[in-house]
Amino acid sequence: MVYRTFKAIASLALLLVAAACGGSQTEVKEPEGDTGTPAVETPPPPPKCESLDEKCASKGDKTVAKVKSADLSFTPAEKWIYAQGEAQTIAQASDEGAVVVFGSYAPDKDAKKDTAARDAALAELIKAAAITLPKGAKINWKQKPDNQEVNGIKLNVWNLPGAERAKKKGTLLVLQAPLADDKALLALGFAADDDEAGMGAVSKAIESIKAGKADDKKADDKKSDGEKK
């Protein structure tokens, strides 16, 4: 306002000088584009939570993470960062902390082909979680697994001690379960041996697995509620 008033006075002074000198009047124009109304900024769209770089943080029971490749969903621990990729969904306490990764593979009736498919899928999960296995260690799929039923899903669970993440050793949990439509779940969970909170969070994430796609509208409503840190 002070600036515009100053401009008006300066313009009036020029007119008076011109009139006194017998010159012609110069038309004074108001500066354009200054309406006095602040521009309304459009808020950015909510994150899709497809990459860890988006920093989508779980809000506990209010968050439903999708495992697109397996038509499953689960609840990451509160404040864990998660990312819903096309092939895998990962959730972690931090880049060095406890982590879970859920994916899938196509099972085969041929035992050798099925083992090869599992091994390849597991290698991708391990890579996504940045986990290092003990030298020469490998999951023996023929070894009888522990069994656990979660929300109607029959899980086969194998344990592999001595795995590492960020140089911290712990036991790697490997989970497999047959699903509908010729799919099978393959997932892993890891927490350091001295991370009791991480172990509990991994267990709860696994226990929250549910078959069927998460309700898209419900998930989107929760996502737009500020899951980005």
Find the count of extended strands (DSSP E, 2+ residues). 10
- For the biggest β-sheet, the strand order reads 3-4-5-9-8-7-6
- Write down the Rg: 30 Å
Give the overall silhouette.
globular
* Secondary-structure element order, N to C: HEEEEEHEEEEHEH
CATH topology: Protein Transport Mog1p, Chain A
CATH class category: Alpha Beta
Q: Fraction of residues in helices?
A: 25-40%
Instruction: Supply the number of helical segments.
Output: 4
Share of residues in strands: 25-35%
Mean pLDDT: 84
Please provide a brief summary of the model.
This protein has helices spanning 2-20, 111-129, 196-207, 216-223; strands at 65-67, 72-74, 81-84, 89-92, 99-105, 146-150, 153-165, 168-178, 184-192, 210-211. With 229 residues, it is an alpha+beta fold. It is globular.
